[in-house]
Design a protein that fits this description.
By secondary structure, the chain is an alpha/beta fold. The chain has 12 helices and 11 strands. Helices cover about 35% and strands about 20% of the residues. It has a 9-stranded mixed sheet, sandwiched between helices. A two-stranded antiparallel ribbon has the order 1-10. α6 crosses α7 and α7 runs antiparallel to α8. It starts with 7 loop residues before the first helix and ends in a 10-residue tail after the last helix. Belongs to the class I-like SAM-binding methyltransferase superfamily. rRNA adenine N(6)-methyltransferase family. RsmA subfamily.
Length: about 325
């Protein structure tokens, strides 16, 4: 199958013909540069036959790059105009054919499927808000590869890691500042809620900076690529929701010492200090110094107090 990637003139022509005007509301910035597309696909480790979910395919630049590498793509698009445009763009540039049973236009409950000459489903277009997706058609995806809209990048990423445990890795392009937060280690200035929650699911690293000139329209900030490789979450008797509750509370007033920041959860500064001591976490430290394993141990203490055990008496 021969795939032709989109260039700047083709992208602008597609947008004009469809009456598409990129909107800040949806965080739309379309990638113009084929070299950047191939870099994303390469760093994502896409292999022929790999099932990949793409969030926010837009005009199809990255979609075509994934297809060129041999992936089978599920594209989740919130914009109905773009969702209707994508199948025809891919048919023209990748030689795929709409499934005979697919609707003429994408519907939220009726994905559009495009197949290759052998009948293999290579692209499935789903018209839906990514934050509301709870299931995807076809085989479970192994990878998430996306140019994520700036305004929802962290919620989308964490939501997909939570809901689709088949994802063994992700490669996403996000605002550079967001990339720094996701990949930040404990103790760094940018470590916070996104860092700790992402670490629950995966090993995270920033892999490359992407200049703003490869986008249309040109954003006011640089972007970066972030690679996430799934790992087992910390061993703990606390639930993920309990651990995330502790993380959120610890950073709600990040300049406070933990004994004060977590007092609302434990009922008092003294109870919080006792729980922190039992968890092996310095009560005078701040949340930015604690790794996800530390937050998990604190969450175990919280779960114990909610079962009626005095703060600080729950064993490791």
């Amino acid at each position: 199958m021969t795939v032709t990637l989109l260039g700047p003139a083709q992208i602008r022509d597609l947008a004009e013909r469809a009456g598409v005007r990129p909107t800040k509301t949806l965080g739309q910035n379309f990638v113009l540069d084929a070299g950047t597309v191939r870099k994303i696909v390469r760093q994502a480790g896409v292999e022929p036959g790999m099932r990949v979910v793409e969030v926010g395919p837009g005009l199809g630049s990255l979609t075509l790059g994934l297809l060129e590498a041999g992936a089978d793509v599920v594209a989740v698009e919130i914009d109905p105009v773009l969702a209707r445009l994508l199948p025809s763009t891919v048919a023209e540039h990748a030689g795929l054919h709409p499934d005979a049973t697919s609707p003429d236009e994408p519907m939220s409950d009726e994905p559009v499927v495009l197949r290759d000459d052998e009948g293999r489903a290579r692209l499935t277009v789903v018209l839906q808000d990514a934050l509301e997706v709870t299931a995807l058609p076809g085989e479970p995806p192994r990878a998430l590869v996306a140019n994520l809209p700036y305004n929802v990048s962290v919620p989308v990423l964490l939501t997909f890691l939570e809901r689709f445990d088949s994802l063994d890795h992700a490669l996403v392009m996000v605002q550079a500042e967001v990339a720094d937060r996701l990949a930040a280690p404990p103790g760094s200035r940018t470590y916070g809620v996104p860092s700790a929650k992402a670490a629950w699911y995966a090993h995270v690293r920033r892999t490359a900076t992407v200049g703003r000139s490869v986008f249309w329209p040109v954003p006011n900030v640089d972007s970066a690529l972030v690679r996430l490789d799934r790992r087992e979450p910390p061993t703990t008797s606390a639930t993920r929701l309990e651990v995330f509750e502790v993380i959120d509370t610890a950073f709600a007033q990040r300049r406070k010492m933990l004994r004060a920041a977590l007092a609302p959860l434990f009922g008092s500064n003294e109870a919080a200090a006792a729980a922190l001591a039992a968890a092996g976490v310095d009560a005078q430290a701040r949340g930015e110094t604690v790794d996800v394993e530390g937050f998990a141990r604190v969450a175990e203490q919280l779960a114990g107090t909610r079962r009626g055990a005095p703060a600080g008496t729950v064993g490791p």
